[in-house]
Write a structure and sequence with these properties.
Hypothetical Protein Aq_1857, Chain: A; three-stranded mixed sheet
């Protein structure tokens, strides 16, 4: 399983993880809604459990994803500043290139 985090997203995520109140938490990517062959994704900061599937990324950010959910394999986390500032999570490997 793989997770890709862009440089913009990594900068924002690391800033959040470095906050004192978030010490010991890990980024979790989850499916908020799935239909057909694609899904809508969300993120949260959670305390990892022993049974969690933790993926290490090339941006030195660990991410928890459900290994039994194929639509999470290959997700890409980006942070855009235009047209609206915020995170965008897609899964290009599954044909999900953005919200509709």
């Amino acid at each position: 399983m793989s997770v890709k985090i862009t440089r913009n997203a990594a900068k924002v995520i690391k800033k959040e993880l470095d906050k004192e109140e978030n010490k010991g938490l890990v980024l979790k990517v989850l499916i908020t809604h799935a239909h057909g062959d694609h899904a809508h994704y969300g993120m949260d900061l959670v305390k990892p459990k022993e049974t969690d599937n933790v993926i290490s990324t090339d941006k030195e950010i660990d991410v928890i994803i459900d290994k039994d959910e194929p639509l999470l394999d290959g997700v890409k986390i980006d942070y855009l500043y235009f047209p609206q500032e915020g995170f965008v999570i897609t899964n290009p490997s599954k044909g999900n290139h953005g919200d509709h």
